[in-house]
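Case study 2.
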Amino acid sequence: MSSDDITTATADDSEGAPLAASTQQQQQHGDPTPIKSKEVDIDHAIDRLGMGTFQYKLIVAVGLCIAADTMEILLLSFLTLVVQVEWNLQTSQASSVTAIVFVGALIGTLTLGYLGDLWGRKPLFVFSTATIAICGILTALSTNYWMMLVFQFGVGIGIGGVVIPFDAMAELFPSKDRGTYCTLPYCFVAFLSSIPPDQEHSSFL
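Prediction:
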């Protein structure tokens, strides 16, 4: 090996040493600036991960919520007849028990959907389901017409928030079978609708 070759090799080593030392220093001190990075969007990441326990739990939670929503709507046709007889209500008053639910649903859809974008899906989803459950129980415990109107309005507010979990499902499910998974919660409604009513109490209606 000639002296020129030795000189060139030494110069290359001296130039490469600072680069290697700088890379090692970045790794040791956790330099936040990566040498090479690759961006991955959320949809692509979910498609790669596929379905998991969280998504299946979400299907069950949304299915139960939709089932409660549907039962509340179906209840209105029976509730109107019962309270009209029990409290001797006029036809317009009995109809208001049904109408107030849809007024609440209109307001709930317009407000809770917007707040879900601001505060997140989960808090508003929990609020909607809790509102349906609490106001539904209080409706059953109502002792007069005006109490029932207030609590039925609250039920409507909660029903309006049922649109929120569908946003979460569309955002957190793999895109390949997203449509199929989004329809699964309605199977809960079909199952509950197939349960025959209590003949003893339904004969009163």
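The mean pLDDT is 76.
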